[in-house]
Write a structure and sequence with these properties.
Layout (H helix, E strand, L loop, with lengths): L19 E5 L8 H14 L4 E5 L5 H5 L11 H7 L9 E2 L5 E4 L8 H5 L8 H5 L1 H6 L2 E5 L6 H9 L2 E7 L2 H20 L5 E10 L4 H14 L4 E7 L3 H8 L3 H4 L4 H16 L12
Parallel strand pairs: 1-5, 1-6, 2-4, 2-5, 6-7, 7-8
Antiparallel strand pairs: 3-4
Helix pairs in contact: 1-12
The structure holds adenosine-5'-triphosphate (ATP) and magnesium ion.
Amino acid sequence: MSHSAKSSELHRVNGPRRAQVLAVANQKGGVGKTATALHLAAGLARMGQAVTLIDLDPQGHIELCLQGALLGKQAQLSRALLSGDTALEALVEKTRLPNLQVVLADPELAALEPFLAGRIAKEFLLRRALEGLRQTQTLLVLDCPPSLGVLTANALAAADLVIVPCELNLLGLDGLADMVEAIEQTRDFLNRDLTLAGVLRTRVDARQMAVNAAMEKVLLRRYPQRVLPMAVPFCAEMSKAQMAGWPLFTTAPSSPAARAYEQLCLALLQSLGLESTAQVACA
Ligand SMILES: Nc1ncnc2c1ncn2[C@@H]1O[C@H](COP(=O)(O)OP(=O)(O)OP(=O)(O)O)[C@@H](O)[C@H]1O
Ligand SMILES: [Mg+2]
């Protein structure tokens, strides 16, 4: 894998007084959104930040991937968003990982779209529901479903920063334009504060050197200053960590993917003007 991609400077936000909201989004499926959201949340919590990870995907993969660490499993996010009178604080589950708590998805989230079809301001339900958590937490991380539907729109309308995981192949790059356009439209119409923190290269297969180099060239030409400097290598430890139900930081802390996510967390902390309180073994 080449790390030669020109880095984008992560957006600098001066001294946040409220929790920053980080969305991980890409309408393409299987590109590493959940892995990225989970390791961002777990990594930032490990660095001493108060983090809530919120699963907006009806597939409920956060619950699966964190089953070892979870202390409870209530999931009523769809009802909370629909009713508008349940603050998400009431749905928070603690975990065995210090500083990390989660709000789990429920399958009914999938049915939200038709229910909300005629509702004014349907893109702002999450933004309102997050208000309480913004007062008590430092970072809120949103895992989005693989679509540009109402749930992703809610995430983008509520977020300060969005990270777009992307695979280095033709189809991965093909979908990126739609995602970047959706972010720009969100900024124009729904959320002026939204910043693209960057495109994160994920599941990078080091053996595909020629393909990686060609795709990075295209990526950097199309999105100059938008490609994050670190890339997440494909590694076998990821599936094992998911099966165990813990983040890589617990099961394989020196794996290449764990180290890449650690670098991303440190870069984010720096860009947000926050400090790590933990000793991390980042290269
Ligand atoms: N760095 C990595 N190395 C190896 N496997 C990975 C890595 N990142 C993710 N995966 C695997 O790739 C698959 C897809 O990852 P993930 O679930 O994070 O993607 P996603 O974008 O959230 O998918 P969906 O769109 O279905 O929500 C999973 O099986 C996961 O274990
Ligand atoms: Mg996912």
